[in-house]
Amino acid sequence: MMQDILASLFPGVSASGLAVLLGATLLGGLVRGFTGFGFAMVFMPLASMVLGPVAALGLIWCIDLPFALPIAARNVRQAEMREVLPLLLTATLALPAGIWLLIWLDRETMRWILAGLILAAVAVMASGWRYHGRPGIPLSLGVGVLSGLFNGMASIGGMPLAVFWLGAQRNDRHKTRANLQTFFGFSTLISGTVLWWKGILTSTALLMALPLMAVYGLGMWAGTHGFRLADESAFRRIAYVVIFLSALISLPLWDGFVGR
Fold first, then answer.
1. Alpha helices in 52-127 (DSSP H)
2. Domain span at residue 206?
3. Euclidean distance between CA atoms 194 and 190, whole angstroms
4. Other CB atoms closer than 10 Å to residue 165's CB: what's the count?
5. Domain count of the fold of the chain
6. At 259, is the pLDDT very low, low, confident or very high (cuts 50, 70, 90)?
């Protein structure tokens, strides 16, 4: 009976593939709750191994929607809207180009690009790079374009924002979390409209998302409590390690070793 239910919820997904999806959802929830970003940076490369990048993109949106909106509502007052709004505008304009690349590129190429982008972002963040001063409009708009492009390609629009805000020397982790959470809430509504229009949001993605939402919520709850206990350096190190390992494991380079 349980096997029949799982087969109906996850059509064409093997037992090992389901284990990967569950593990990626839990780890992604932990990182999201702990840092305020990073669910897609953990989930997308691992889920793409099982489902392919296009299906994984629709699944991410369905899983995160019930959490992103209320979290954004709680954080909007603490966020710096002068920084968030210009980024949101340019991210929205660049989003369709990212989706076009996702559909146009083949599955394996997208996996290489996705893992490479995430590994590069982690390297930049872990290098100790800091941005001095208040971000100007040109820089904010440029980061917004990258965010929209990456969001359309792989739902990792938070990656350039994390590099941008985590690297800002003047920002503490609370302000960074508020900015990211607020941005994600608005961008989730916008990207959902475009993904539905492009046919990427499907009933299959919604059915898969239903059981994974509970796992994601558990991970977010644990990550949020960990955030309250951890210091600033631990906050950054844990996020970097988890994201780095997820991207490294997802590389097509290992497919021959694991039989994919």
1. 53-75, 81-104, 107-126
2. 2-258
3. 7
4. 27
5. 1
6. very low
